[in-house]
Amino acid sequence: MAAAALLRRVPAARAPATALMAARAISGSTAPLTIETSVPFTSHIVDPPSRDVTTTPAEILTFFHDMSVMRRMEIAADSLYKAKLIRGFCHLYDGQEAVAVGMEAAITRSDSIITAYRDHCTYLARGGDLVSAFAELMGRQAGCSRGKGGSMHFYKKDANFYGGHGIVGAQVPLGCGLAFAQKYRKEESATFALYGDGAANQGQLFEALNISALWKLPAILVCENNHYGMGTAEWRAAKSPAYYKRGDYVPGLKVDGMDVLAVKQACKFAKEHAIANGPIVLEMDTYRYHGHSMSDPGSTYRTRDEISGVRQERDPIERVRKLILAHDLATPAELKDMEKEIRKEVDDAIAKAKESPIPDTSELFTNVYVKGFGVESFGADRKELRATLP
Amino acid sequence: MVARAAVAANAVAAAEFKSGGHELLLFEALREALIEEMKADPTVCVFGEDVGHYGGSYKVTKGLAEMFGDLRVLDTPIAENSFTGMGVGAAMKGLRPVVEGMNMGFLLLAYNQISNNCGMLHYTSGGQFKIPLVIRGPGGVGRQLGAEHSQRLESYFQSIPGLQMVACSTPYNAKGLMKAAIRSENPVVLFEHVLLYNLKEKIPDEEYICCLEEAEMVRPGEHVTILTYSRMRYHVMQAAKTLVNKGYDPEVIDIRSLKPFDLHTIGNSIKKTHRVLIVEECMRTGGIGASLRSAIIDNFWDYLDAPIMCLSSQDVPTPYAAPLEDATVVQPAQIVAAVEQICQ
Asked: Looking at the predicted structure, is the pLDDT value of residue A377 above 80?
């Protein structure tokens, strides 16, 4: 099939097609389709949403496409890291793609997302492009943070994506602050503050949740529970690993994080709830194939059988592939072609990112302060001296 | 206590204002600044413990909750780490929060948020986000408040990149620095002192701002440059009276800007007097004085005729008993002795 028609996202109020989108002619149908989630939602002091999710063929194919791009990007990042083009810490998201993609499908760009260091795919979901992602990972000027942030510091202000944080749990109070600003300005939008099962034991989470509940902020705390806080399994770190219940007086929902439709339904539900009633906790039951980071083989604290088991039974992309084939939305060959194109797109992006130069040494001193009201730092001769700021 | 005129290009000199001026206490000056800025800019809000309905533990925010409402003057639970983080998040999204630490020492609980998020997000995001946050509160050695309530955090925060730090010492500069800090696009930590809140001074009726990076010339002189800030300014001025009677002519500069240092004003003074004494309330180890000494040595070594002396607080937890507490901080007699030694 010729790649003539553009795949459109639904609903129309959402942001226009991003760089992730390629032209396809396979079932661009926007006729509604209702799919049941893998498992029903489990809830805590709230009535859960229905298991029946409304979607369209076009949307399902978008899910397949977007998750495949993310998967490819993370695998490519793995190779780049081993080739020593990416240095430092690199935390990969493969296996968890459904959370990023499902969330994005449920919300708009005026809602805010903040997450921790496993942020490459969330950046893409928010409209970031592959070139700036790879460039940032390789520390080049074309990177989304100009090469000065690195893997753990991806941000996209114009898409209300607030990063990108290295210290576990510290992003959650920031997220509640974003929700506060949304309420202060009477915007009818919400903030999704993502964190992991490891971060769920941070005190500042409970502090922020208390304040958000008191002030009725539109904050949604999303625990991406991949069951391991680096090398520590959840049952060894949390007396109560039922993270969706730990809000206590704050309602919670447990979601199959490998089912992109369930994620979409839960996030839609949570957004409506948060804007009307204040904070809610979502627990996404998900899994990461890689170790905690590239420095962690990921096999000393879990068995290879477990990893391959999840890959076989619950892989988010395979689930969507089965859905597409079952509903005849595309042929296996068309999906394979799509994947080939994505592979090429990712390879091209890497090549382009490699061309970007390393930041100039003068960049060491830019963006430490904002230039503005009386911020020049004076040297002995009243000229702006960037270096000496004792 | 009327501050000597600050010879600054941009700031309105305290003694030269056009209309009559009005007298107030330092905490009222801070309050006035907050009210003016909150009226002018609807994105300015205040976070802190007991700042709203209670009126603030040092009355800096008294009446603000009635004036601006509960959404702009927010009583937080006792959760410094998270409400400071929330302030940073709100600033990322375009608000201008003023976060109060009921006592500066409590903000140690929020150190991660202040250092890693507040100070660094502008840099790590490649300039995308600015954090126009003001963090303020009283610190310093007070009246037998005990070790944990007598903290001086300026030395703890000074190496955080991306942060600006100022210390106010008079009603005039308190109001001016508070306004400037709120308007600045960078995060500013404003250090107040528990013992200075009731200082009285006449300040201008018309609007004015103090430059955040500028030092204040308190008393011009010829023999020695005394660099100080916050409460120690008053101990220095007391010592200055004794010194003048003994025939010395000290130049006293309130550095005000703790990060970055106003090396221009400081340098000009050193080039004139060639002798430097630093008097601070920080601990000796790793204090503001330690950094200032390095900066002076790096930039003005050739102008010095004597080693730089630095009088700081003792490296001890502040004791409760009154005479011990007095011995922790620098007293005027020590300042006099130090100047006599430098000027030998």
From this structure: no
- Most A CBs within 10 A among B47, B124, B163, hence the mutation to make, goes to B124
- Per DSSP, chain B holds a count of helices (H) and strands (E) of 12, 14
Q: Which residue has the tokens 């009005």?
A: B22
| Residue pair B204/A367 in contact by the 8 Å Cβ criterion | no
Minimal CA–CA distance to B17: which of B171, B172, B167? B172
Say which of B32, B122, B149, B192 is annotated catalytic: B149
- What six digits make up the tokens of A164? 């990108």
- Tens digits of per-residue pLDDT, B180-202? 999 999 999 999 999 999 999 99
Q: CA separation (Å) from A122 to A101, A242, A284, B73, B121?
A: 8, 24, 15, 34, 18
Write the residue in B79, B94, B261 that is nearest to A211 by C-beta.
B79
Q: Residues 325-384, chain A: which have Cβ within 8 Å of B?
A: 366-370, 372-382
Region of B230 on the Ramachandran plot (φ > 0 left; ψ -120 to 50 alpha; else beta): left
The tokens describing B89, both together, are 């998040």
Contact predicate B136/B103, CB 8 Å: no
Half-sphere exposure of A204 (CA within 13 A, CB side): 27
Candidates A207, A371, A382: best to mutate against B (most CBs of B within 10 A) is: A207
Answering whether pTM is above 0.90, one says: no
> Cis (ω within 30 of 0) for the bond into A231?
no
Partner B contacted by A114 (CB < 8 A): yes
Give me the catalytic one of B28, B80, B201, B214: B80
Q: Where are the beta strands (DSSP E) in A180-324?
A: 191-196, 219-225, 228-229, 232-233, 252-256, 280-285
**Contact call for residues B280 and B289 (beta carbons, < 8 A):** yes
B275 close to B223: Cβ distance less than 8 angstroms: yes
Q: Phi and psi of B13, rounded to 5°?
A: -65, 140
Confidence of residue B16 (pLDDT cuts 50, 70, 90): low
Q: Are the CB atoms for A279 and A253 separated by under 8 Å?
A: no
- The residue-averaged pLDDT of A177-195 equals 97
Q: In 3D, which of B77, B76, B52 has the Cα closest to residue B66?
A: B52
Calpha distance A136→A138 (Å, rounded):
5
Chains A, B: CB contacts under 8 A, how many? 192
User: What ipTM describes this predicted complex?
Assistant: 0.86
Spatial CA neighbour of A225 closest among A268, A254, A264: A254
The answer to whether the CB of A101 falls within 8 A of the CB of A127 is no
Task: Give A325-351 as a DSSP string.
Answer: HHTTSS-HHHHHHHHHHHHHHHHHHHH
> And the tokens for A382?
């009243």
Task: Sort residue B308 into left (φ over 0), alpha (ψ -120 to 50) or beta.
Answer: beta
| pLDDT (tens digit per residue) in A35-52 | 999 999 999 999 999 999
Distance CA B122, CA B109 (A): 22
- DSSP letter (8 states) at residue A230: T
